[in-house]
Structures are given as structure tokens and as C-alpha cells.
Automatic annotation (TrEMBL):
GO cellular component: cytoplasm
Broad EC category: transferase
Protein's name in the database: Beta-ketoacyl-[acyl-carrier-protein] synthase III
Annotated organism of origin: SAR86 cluster bacterium
UniProt GO molecular function: 3-oxoacyl-[acyl-carrier-protein] synthase activity; beta-ketoacyl-acyl-carrier-protein synthase III activity
Gene name, Swiss-Prot/TrEMBL: fabH
SUPFAM superfamilies: Thiolase-like
InterPro entries: ACP_syn_III_C (IPR013747), ACP_syn_III_N (IPR013751), FabH (IPR004655), Thiolase-like (IPR016039)
Catalytic activity: malonyl-[ACP] + acetyl-CoA + H(+) = 3-oxobutanoyl-[ACP] + CO2 + CoA
PANTHER family, sorted: 3-OXOACYL-[ACYL-CARRIER-PROTEIN] SYNTHASE, BETA-KETOACYL-[ACYL-CARRIER-PROTEIN] SYNTHASE III 2
């Protein structure tokens, strides 16, 4: 039986920090409201292209696995904020890292993009179709934000993470997974004015917008993730007491608390970094996983439960068994291009445009 071990992990968080107090300088909100409703204190703002973050995360993951780029045979990129639709952004990453023997696929399932990618990549290794897969998840969501909409703009941030999965005879890696989609609620999270259904009908694409039913998403997120967790535990023949660490999608600390309660895991076993980065969509799980390993929260042979939900409304869960190694084999010196701007300076032109637009559409 072939398994797919996670042998490399890496993250890239851009340096510019946007605090809750920064947000309160241009919208009617407060640190108190944001922190008490979401657990978020600050988030990062990307100063370069999305692919720059993805390339750094990918190089760090490859170094941790000590895998040559030419040995990667598949790149799966989960993101909805790609550099471009054509060429697909996985191919931009492939070229930059020199993964000359890889196939490259963009996956757009929003926040679940990384988990969907891990599910697909693992399945392809287990069938023998691929050997070494690079799974990346991340987002440059600040670029698509309507900064005049306080109920959405405070929630998100930019970041990217990646893992390398390699064929193994040991029973490790993603041992069970379940993914799905509640498409009847697809418009509970909607980014409008982006895509051919809009551009076919209108000449005005300067402003994307968000329709967002936060409470509906909250309820469905807790329910779908907890059911998916129960499913993967059953598939793996484990109980919740066997779980050493939960690394869930980081959207809202209250969602994580409700999930832990419903699944029956003590909060100390739940890895949380939403206070530092907000919701980075497809980036949350690979970034959290990389931090959990680097911070010593993952031990050899640990059982890790992961779960995610996002626009679609897509959802999923996975049961990972970690391998023997918790230290990177090599360190990459990959870095983002330098940045000399504050987060507020980076997004200032967008804020101005969206605030002006909001006045004209009131
Ligand atoms: O990865 C998938 C992405 N989706 C999500 O993560 C969404 C999940 N949902 C949530 O996280 C929560 O529903 C929210 C954080 C979005 C909202 O929390 P809530 O406790 O459900 O708040 P609410 O929607 O009931 O809003 C309460 C009040 C409203 O005012 P009124 O109508 O009671 O006067 C809002 O207008 O809070 C107001 N409000 C704000 N006030 C200050 C909404 N956004 C803000 C804000 N600052 N940023």
C-alpha cells in the first residue's frame, strides 16, 4: 500500500501588518468589536504579487523536504486570488522554482483550496499516478477587498503556505479525508463583478464587491466541519481521544471554539493563529501547519485532525498521521521582494477608491 507522507512544509507571510486600530482609522469599527467577535488582532497585507508569496512558501517547503524542484511531478495551487487566469498561476510558480517535470493545476474552492489539494494530491500518490506533489494554498485577498464594507474587510488577510507530499510505504500522511460542498448556500459568500458572468453584461469592473451572510456561514461552517471530522475519524478507525492536535481553517476564534466543543476536543489541542493573520482563506491550514511543526507542537507519529470550509460553500476534513521527522532537512533563503511601505500605505489607493465608490452608490 502506498501512502503520501508530508515531508516538507513552509509558509510565507508578508511583512506589512494591518492592525484593528489601523482599520478603525478609516471605517466605523473598533479593536474591541473585531477581537470579541472574531479573535483577530491583526492581519498581513501583501506588497507584491500573489505568486511571489507562493514561490517563497514553495521553496521553503522543498528545502524542508530536501527535494529537488525537478523531482516534483505535480503542483496543486489552491487560491482564488491568482496572479492571472491565463496562464494559470501554478504554471508561473512551476517556472519560477524550476519544477520542469511537473504538471500544474490551479484549484479554486476558496478557503478549502489547500485541503482539496491535499486530498487530490494524496489520492494521486496513493494510486501511483504521481510520486512527489507540491500542494500550495494561499491568498492575496486584500487586493479584492471592498474596504468600505466593515463586516467583511476586517476578517481577511494575505498569506501563503505549502507542503511537499511524497510516496511512502509507512502508514503516514493524509490517511482519511472527506470533502464536499453545500452548493444550495453558494451565495452566502459571493464576490461579485469578477468573472465573465459579470463582464459579459457590464463595462464597469473597477469595483468588486462582497455579499456575505456571516451568521449563515458561521452555522454551516461549524456543522459541516464537525460532521466531516466525525467522518474521517470513523474512516481511520480512531476516536477523538487519539487526536494529538487539531489544525483547522482559521476564520474566526468563535468558530474554532464551537468546532472544538462539538467534536469533543479540548481547546489546548486546537492550534490557533487567527489573532495574527485573520482569515487567509486557502492559506490558513498550510501556514498553521508549518507554524505548528516549527513551534514543536507536532511530534513524530502524531495524529492531526484538520477541517475547513469556505465559499461554495465548500467544506472538508482530513486525518493526518505525521511521519518521523519534525525538523526541516534544509533551510531556504527565499525571501519576498523588499517592502518599505506600511500596510495602510499599501492599501491606501484601494481604500480611497472604495470609499468614493460607496458615496456614489449610496
Ligand atoms: O472562511 C469563510 C469566510 N466566512 C466567515 O468566516 C464568516 C463567518 N461568520 C463570522 O465570522 C461572523 O458571523 C462575523 C464575524 C462575520 C459577524 O459576527 P456576528 O456576531 O455574527 O455579528 P453580526 O453579523 O450579528 O453583526 C452585529 C452588529 C451589526 O450591527 P447591528 O445591526 O446589530 O446594529 C453589524 O452592523 O455588528 C455590526 N458590525 C460591525 N461593527 C463594528 C458588523 N461588522 C462590524 C465591524 N465593526 N467591523
Amino acid at each position: 500500500m502506498q501512502y503520501a507522507e508530508i515531508t516538507g512544509w513552509g509558509k510565507c507571510v508578508p511583512p506589512a501588518v494591518l492592525s484593528n486600530d489601523d482599520l478603525a482609522t478609516f471605517m466605523d469599527t473598533s479593536d474591541e468589536w473585531i477581537f470579541s467577535r472574531t479573535g483577530i488582532k491583526e492581519r498581513r497585507i501583501c506588497h507584491c504579487n500573489f505568486s511571489d508569496m507562493a514561490i517563497v512558501a514553495a521553496r521553503r517547503a522543498l528545502a524542508a523536504a530536501d527535494l529537488a524542484p525537478a523531482d516534483v511531478d505535480l503542483i496543486l495551487l489552491g487560491s482564488l486570488t491568482n496572479d492571472s487566469l491565463c496562464p494559470n498561476t501554478a504554471s508561473i510558480i512551476q517556472d519560477a522554482i524550476g519544477a520542469v517535470n511537473a504538471a500544474s493545476i490551479d484549484i479554486n474552492s476558496a478557503c478549502t483550496g489547500f485541503l482539496y489539494g491535499l486530498h487530490i494530491g494524496t489520492s494521486l500518490i496513493r494510486t501511483g499516478a504521481h510520486k512527489n506533489v507540491l500542494v500550495i494554498g494561499g491568498e492575496f485577498i486584500s487586493h479584492y477587498m471592498n474596504w468600505a464594507k466593515r463586516d467583511v474587510a476586517v476578517l481577511f488577510g494575505d498569506a501563503c503556505g505549502a507542503v511537499v507530499i511524497e510516496g511512502s510505504d509507512q502508514e503516514v500522511g493524509l490517511l482519511a479525508s472527506k470533502i464536499g460542498c453545500e452548493a444550495d448556500a453558494k451565495y452566502a459568500i459571493q464576490i461579485t463583478n469578477l468573472g465573465s458572468a459579470y463582464s459579459r453584461l457590464s463595462d464597469d469592473f473597477r469595483y468588486v464587491d462582497w455579499n456575505f451572510d456571516g451568521q449563515e456561514v458561521f452555522k454551516r461552517a461549524v456543522k459541516s466541519m464537525s460532521l466531516a471530522c466525525a467522518n474521517v475519524l470513523e474512516q481511520a478507525g480512531l476516536t477523538v481521544d487519539d487526536i494529538d492536535l487539531v489544525v483547522p481553517h482559521q476564520a474566526n476564534k468563535r468558530i474554532l471554539d464551537s468546532l472544538a466543543k462539538r467534536v469533543g476536543v479540548p481547546q489546548e489541542k486546537v492550534f490557533v493563529n487567527v489573532h495574527k493573520y485573520g482569515n487567509t482563506s486557502a492559506g490558513t491550514i498550510p501556514v498553521a501547519l508549518a507554524e505548528a511543526v516549527d513551534e514543536g507542537r507536532v511530534k513524530p507519529g502524531d495524529y492531526i485532525l484538520t477541517a475547513s470550509f469556505g465559499a461554495g460553500l465548500t467544506w472538508g476534513a482530513g486525518l493526518i498521521r505525521w511521519g518521523d521527522r519534525v525538523k526541516p532537512l534544509q533551510k531556504s533563503d527565499a525571501e519576498l521582494p523588499p517592502n518599505d511601505k506600511t500596510a495602510l500605505e499599501i492599501i491606501a489607493p484601494h481604500i480611497e477608491r472604495y470609499l468614493e465608490h460607496a458615496k456614489t452608490t449610496k
